[in-house]
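User: I've been trying to design a sequence by hand for this structure and keep getting stuck. Would you show me what you'd pick, starting by listing the structure so we're on the same page?

Assistant: Good idea, let's start from the same input. This is the structure you sent:
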């Protein structure tokens, strides 16, 4: 059976027999996580229509503040809990929380505050759950395995991105909106036992005990609640990863606002159809590219090329948008950006964390994935507003600014890929020297 699965998977990625179970389990885990999120996201976004722009802006600000606090709290937990218990506990907590939110919807007569808390909590969950997942992946697979397998594993997120909203659409007519919280909670409850199994496969199948920093670190990482922030600030490598994320949020925010403004003349039904069609196209193509191309691109062209490829496409896309600021071009830029991020940039970016130690993976990484990301979203949204409403720039001029940022993003990707290769070469040389001794 394993040989048959290996032959099937070999068509998608360069996989070895001992990696089949771990790879499929990881694929299923991220599918479950993203499926649950995509069930919750339409519930969250439907609420926002009842609030003013100012109210939603404040909720974005609260999301950033709560994200910073949550990362600090998570850092404290990493310092005091065994990783074996911590990772499954995170998802058990989220599953419990959504169950409690459902109980709140059934018992509270006035739901405005509860709904706003839910909006912020889901926004926090949207980044936190996937950041913890990739930290866990970087702690499970070796660097060569990550290069070959992360693209295929990441495709599971897109399957969840297709299945989650499809399931929500199928169920909401029969059971209503609120019970979807229970459906998402039930899906999340499947994650902890799957994680525990993966932890066993790491030793029994992958034989990757050495991926951990050392024996003591396997049980407790140590450090304070703010250790992740200090690790981030003192490492040039991590700072540049943070800069890479910031440039991504810059392009993402600008592409989003450009499209939003171009769609102002459309009615709500047409806008919804455009956004829904984009989601469908993005998730389908992400599955195809992630499963069949990402690992091969990283293996044959190297990480510098892989990390710089999507920024380079965005540089060209922004120039096209500057020359022809119309809906079709804006949609194309947004679709290519999202496919590129989910299928190529994100898995490639996660490979970078296989070159750092365990404390960085579980403490500094959430700072980058959550705090820097949400901070970038907030700052870049205000930057777009300043350029359009403050300086009076048109969409074409703003797209030129975006192209300039995309060029910096390309350079950042190349630098990170080269740094990763250097660190990998140094570790290989050190291991060879140790074997000689």
């Amino acid at each position: 059976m394993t040989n048959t699965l290996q032959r099937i998977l070999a068509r998608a990625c360069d996989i070895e027999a001992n990696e089949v179970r771990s790879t499929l389990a990881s694929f299923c885990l991220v599918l479950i996580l993203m499926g649950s999120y995509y069930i919750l996201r339409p519930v969250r976004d439907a609420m926002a229509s009842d609030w003013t722009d100012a109210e939603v802006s404040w909720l974005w600000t609260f999301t950033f503040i709560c994200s910073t606090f949550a990362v600090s709290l998570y850092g404290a937990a990493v310092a005091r809990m065994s990783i074996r218990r911590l990772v499954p506990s995170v998802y058990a907590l989220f599953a419990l929380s959504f169950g409690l939110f459902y109980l709140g919807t059934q018992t509270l007569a006035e739901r405005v505050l509860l709904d706003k808390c839910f909006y912020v909590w889901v926004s926090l969950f949207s980044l936190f759950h996937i950041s913890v997942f990739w930290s866990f992946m970087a702690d499970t697979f070796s660097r060569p395995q990550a290069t070959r397998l992360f693209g295929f594993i990441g495709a599971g997120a897109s399957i969840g991105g297709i299945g989650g909203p499809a399931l929500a659409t199928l169920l909401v007519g029969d059971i209503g909106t609120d019970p979807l919280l229970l459906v998402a909670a039930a899906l999340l409850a499947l994650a902890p036992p799957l994680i525990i199994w993966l932890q066993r496969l790491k030793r029994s199948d992958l034989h990757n005990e050495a991926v951990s920093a050392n024996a003591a670190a396997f049980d407790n990482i140590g450090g304070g609640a703010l250790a992740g922030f200090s690790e981030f600030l003192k490492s040039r490598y991590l700072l540049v990863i943070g800069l890479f994320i910031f440039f991504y949020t810059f392009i993402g925010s600008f592409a989003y606002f450009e499209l939003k403004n171009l769609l102002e003349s459309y009615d709500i039904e047409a806008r919804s159809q455009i956004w829904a069609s984009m989601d469908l196209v993005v998730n389908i193509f992400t599955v195809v590219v992630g499963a069949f191309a990402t690992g091969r691109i990283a293996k044959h062209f190297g990480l510098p090329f892989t990390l710089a490829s999507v920024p380079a496409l965005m540089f060209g896309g922004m120039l096209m948008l500057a020359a022809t600021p119309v809906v079709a071009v804006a949609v194309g830029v947004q679709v290519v950006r999202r496919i590129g991020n989910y299928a190529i940039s994100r898995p490639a970016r996660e490979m970078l964390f296989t070159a750092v130690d365990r404390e960085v993976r579980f403490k500094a990484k959430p700072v980058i994935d959550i705090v820097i990301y949400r901070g970038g979203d907030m700052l870049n949204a205000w930057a777009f507003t300043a350029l359009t409403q403050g300086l009076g720039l048109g969409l074409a001029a703003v797209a030129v600014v975006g192209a300039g940022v995309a060029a910096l993003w390309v350079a950042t990707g190349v630098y990170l890929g080269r740094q990763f290769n250097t660190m990998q070469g140094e570790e290989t040389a050190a291991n060879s020297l140790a074997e000689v001794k």
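That's my pick for every position. To get oriented when you compare it with your attempt: The domain at 17-208 is CATH 1.20.1250.20 (Growth Hormone; Chain: A;). Residues 213-222, 433-437 have pLDDT under 50 and may be disordered.
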